[in-house]
């Protein structure tokens, strides 16, 4: 039973990283109906920037700074690269994001080199005697959880909550939701639609940056590091429903856990760890066949 | 267009173009290696291999364009079908000694049947959901190939080279030409691509092709016209996968080696890029896209020929990405749309203006090269580029002002308004994939 809970906890931790990146994908998809293939590379790029800052700075100084830089990068990409193809067929915009994928990946390799680098996990903080972040593991009854896995989970939940409050209770969040739902009507109501789209990209890039910062200590920091994570994040976003932020996180958690369980508990001879990706993807396809727009996704209806 | 006419044979520009292309493909590409080293457009073994590659990827692009461009279903799983074709050919040729042509056909049929099987569940999925589900297929393929190594030889792959067909004796007997293996393989790939090209043209122009387009533009309207939507959608998947399987069989001959990593998901993404950059719903676009896929990475070398420009060799992939973005911004209908716009522009301009444009570019380039050679360095390059701009401004005259002032406006017009009909399908502005998401058009 211990092993089972162990696998579930590790799965939840990696799953929340998939979920965070999926959340970033969903934020963009909701407002522009574009699958951003460059999302992972944007996160990778900002994580490299974070690494550069860490060469002379403190972790908790770097953290907000990197979020700001990421948001700036996202806004810049929307304004300069996505805006000229706004309104073009969706496939064209997908190819543009693939172009950005190539550029970001190549520039990162060129600037920082392809050799994997270690990346620091969030350092320990003591708040009134309770330990947050840092090294070691915590005993939670049936199993132990490493502090870093806990950190990831906490961050995912915190970001989710913050975004919920932002979207539900602030005027800006309301404006962004309105833009995503019906941009023409929003424009007529006086919302700056273009600005909202830029904000959406900035927000999404910041969320993606957190995913990058949290996964980098687990897998080494290197240019191709987010490629696998991005594919899982796509799967998570689709599983949860591409227009549902909650779905993205839930989808990520489901994929993280089921991937670990499939790897551990299926017969090694013809499935096992080598086939865990395949089986996980098969599960997703089966779910999609039952619910073609994901678990939480709404069916897009069209008046004819 | 002016028509040169000789007493017996009317030499239309189209006929001349075909004759030049046929000469190039049949004679120049394989046989130009007899020319001295360094001769421009001399095709060595490597170039011949590249042209064979273009032929093989053009087959996939044709098939994927039938599915995505004409039928509007996005597939990111075509590397799996190529793998099926490639492995069928490799296993049957190496382990069972089948003749190569039968394995290519059988590979296509098996891939096509698999495509049909995938097409049935795909009926329920649309747009990005279908894209990601098929991406799953592409991701799983290398793992499956590695895991069940009894049949597939596992990670080490299969070396097909010893079994790859050699040029048959009759060519030497009949034509007196000795072909090397590479040249024979090139002709083989070219022949297969031609057959598939003719088949594709016939499919998209037939009842089936029209049904595909009708379903893409509106499933409900198509259904109301009596088209069986599920039947034609699965048929599109099967045809498309058949094409990919044939291309896979060709891959085994051209490359001579198949391994799980030859068919990873990046290949699928490359295929999608190929058809969008080439031009969706366009036969010409599929071929241009495949050509671009092979040649664009090499174009980054050309940057170093432009005086004053430099690109670190490590940034060639970024160059490729930048090229993708620029094509999508300035040619929303891909290379085929660009060709179409260009021919229309040329055929509607007064001759004097065209002459000025050509002369402007020619003189400008000459000025840049001269200044670079004579003065050299940063000063020479700057002088050269200023001269280029001056000459261009004087000679382009009206064309430049018009393009300068209205260039971006026309770009917007081309994106939002009625577009130029892309490619050679002869279809009008409606010949575009409909929006994947109903909200997409509302902005």
Report what the structure shows:
The complex is a heterodimer of chains A (304) and B (443). Chain A has one domain (2-225). Chain A has eleven helices and four strands. Chain A has helices spanning 2-32, 39-54, 59-82, 90-112, 147-169, 171-181, 183-188, 193-215, 225-240, 245-265, 276-290; strands at residues 125-127, 130-132, 137-139, 144-146. Chain A has a two-stranded antiparallel ribbon. In chain A, a hairpin with a 2-residue loop joins β1 and β2. Chain A starts with a helix and ends in a 14-residue tail after the last helix. In chain B, the strands form two sheets. A two-stranded antiparallel sheet of chain B has the order 1-2. A two-stranded antiparallel sheet of chain B has the order 3-4. The longest helix of chain B is centred in the middle third of the chain and has 27 residues, at 229-255. Chain B has two domains: 43-340, Orthogonal Bundle (ABC transporter involved in vitamin B12 uptake, BtuC); 351-416, no CATH class. In chain B, a hairpin with a 4-residue loop joins β1 (4-5) and β2 (10-11). Chains A and B meet through α4, α9 and α11 of A and α5, α12 and α14 of B.
- Report the helical percentage of chain A: 55-70%
State the major sheet of chain B.
2 strands, antiparallel
Task: Order the strands across the largest sheet of chain B as they lie in space.
Answer: 1-2
Which two chains have the most extensive interface, and how many residues on each?
A-B, 58 and 58 residues
N-to-C terminal Cα separation of chain A, in Å? 55 Å
What class do helices, strands and sheet pairing of chain B give?
mainly alpha
- Helical content of chain B stands at over 70%
Mean pLDDT of chain B, to the nearest integer, reads 81
- Give the low-confidence spans of chain B: 404-443
Q: What is the rounded distance between the termini of chain B?
A: 42 Å
What is the total number of structural domains of chain B?
2
């Amino acid at each position: 039973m211990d092993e089972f809970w162990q696998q579930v906890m590790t799965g939840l931790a990696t799953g929340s990283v998939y979920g965070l990146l999926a959340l970033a994908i969903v934020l963009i998809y909701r407002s522009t109906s574009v699958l951003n293939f460059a999302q992972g590379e944007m996160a990778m790029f900002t994580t490299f920037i974070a690494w550069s800052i860490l060469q002379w700075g403190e972790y908790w100084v770097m953290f907000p700074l990197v979020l700001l830089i990421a948001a700036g990068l996202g806004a810049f990409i929307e304004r300069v690269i996505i805006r000229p193809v706004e309104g073009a067929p969706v496939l064209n915009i997908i190819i543009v994001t693939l172009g950005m994928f190539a550029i970001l990946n190549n520039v990162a390799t060129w600037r920082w080199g392809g050799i994997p680098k270690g990346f620091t996990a969030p350092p320990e903080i003591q708040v009134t005697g309770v330990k947050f972040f840092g090294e070691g593991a915590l005993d939670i009854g049936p199993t132990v959880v490493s502090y870093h896995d806990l950190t990831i989970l906490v961050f995912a939940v915190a970001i989710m909550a913050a975004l919920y409050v932002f979207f539900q209770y602030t005027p800006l969040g309301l404006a962004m939701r309105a833009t995503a739902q019906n941009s023409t009507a929003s424009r007529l109501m006086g919302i700056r639609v273009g600005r909202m789209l830029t904000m959406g990209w900035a927000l999404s890039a910041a969320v993606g940056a957190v995913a990058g910062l949290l996964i980098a200590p687990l897998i080494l920091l290197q240019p191709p590091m987010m490629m696998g994570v991005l594919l899982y994040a796509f799967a998570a976003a689709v599983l949860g429903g591409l227009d549902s932020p909650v779905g993205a996180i839930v989808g990520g958690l489901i994929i993280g856990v089921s991937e670990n369980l499939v790897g551990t508990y299926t017969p090694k001879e013809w499935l096992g760890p080598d086939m865990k990706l395949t089986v996980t993807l098969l599960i997703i396809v089966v779910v999609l066949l039952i619910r073609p727009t994901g678990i939480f996704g709404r069916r897009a209806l069209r008046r004819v | 267009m002016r028509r040169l006419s000789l007493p017996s044979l009317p030499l239309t520009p189209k006929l001349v173009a075909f004759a030049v292309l046929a000469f190039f493909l049949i004679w120049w590409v394989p046989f130009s290696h007899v020319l001295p080293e360094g001769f421009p457009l001399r095709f060595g073994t490597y170039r011949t291999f590249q042209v064979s590659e273009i032929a093989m990827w053009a087959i996939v692009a044709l098939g994927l364009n039938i599915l995505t461009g004409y039928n509007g279903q996005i597939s990111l799983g075509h590397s799996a079908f190529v793998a099926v074709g490639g492995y069928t050919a490799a296993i049957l040729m190496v382990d069972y000694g089948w003749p190569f042509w039968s394995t290519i056909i059988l590979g296509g049929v098996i891939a096509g049947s698999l495509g049909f099987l995938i097409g049935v569940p795909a009926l329920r999925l649309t747009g990005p959901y279908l894209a990601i589900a098929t991406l799953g297929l592409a991701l799983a393929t290398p793992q499956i190939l590695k895991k069940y190594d009894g049949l597939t030889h596992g990670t080490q792959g299969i070396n097909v080279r010893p079994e790859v067909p050699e040029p048959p004796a009759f060519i030497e007997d009949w034509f007196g030409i000795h072909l090397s293996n590479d040249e024979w393989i090139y002709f083989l790939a070219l022949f297969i691509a031609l057959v598939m090209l003719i088949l594709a043209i016939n499919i998209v122009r037939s009842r089936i092709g029209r049904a595909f387009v009708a379903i893409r533009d509106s499933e409900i309207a198509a259904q109301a016209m009596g088209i069986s939507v599920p039947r034609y959608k699965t048929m599109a998947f099967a045809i498309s996968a058949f094409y990919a399987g044939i291309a896979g069989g060709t891959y085994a001959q051209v490359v001579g080696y198949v391994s799980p990593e030859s068919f990873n998901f990046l290949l699928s993404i490359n295929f999608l890029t190929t058809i969008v950059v080439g031009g969706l719903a366009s036969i010409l676009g599929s071929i241009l896209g495949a050509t671009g896929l092979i040649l664009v990475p090499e174009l980054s070398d050309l940057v170093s020929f432009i005086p004053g420009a430099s690109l670190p060799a490590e940034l060639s992939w970024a160059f490729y990405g930048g090229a993708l973005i620029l094509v999508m911004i300035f040619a929303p209908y891909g290379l085929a749309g660009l060709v179409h716009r260009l021919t229309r522009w040329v055929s509607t301009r007064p001759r004097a203006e065209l002459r000025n444009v050509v002369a402007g570019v020619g003189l400008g380039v000459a000025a840049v090269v001269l200044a670079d050679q004579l003065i050299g360095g940063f000063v020479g390059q700057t002088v050269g580029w200023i001269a280029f701009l001056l000459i261009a401004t004087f000679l382009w005259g009206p064309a430049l002002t018009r393009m300068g002032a209205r260039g971006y406006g026309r770009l917007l017009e081309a994106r939002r308004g009625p577009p130029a009909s892309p490619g050679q399908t002869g279809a009008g502005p409606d010949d575009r994939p409909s929006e994947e998401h109903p909200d997409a058009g509302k902005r």
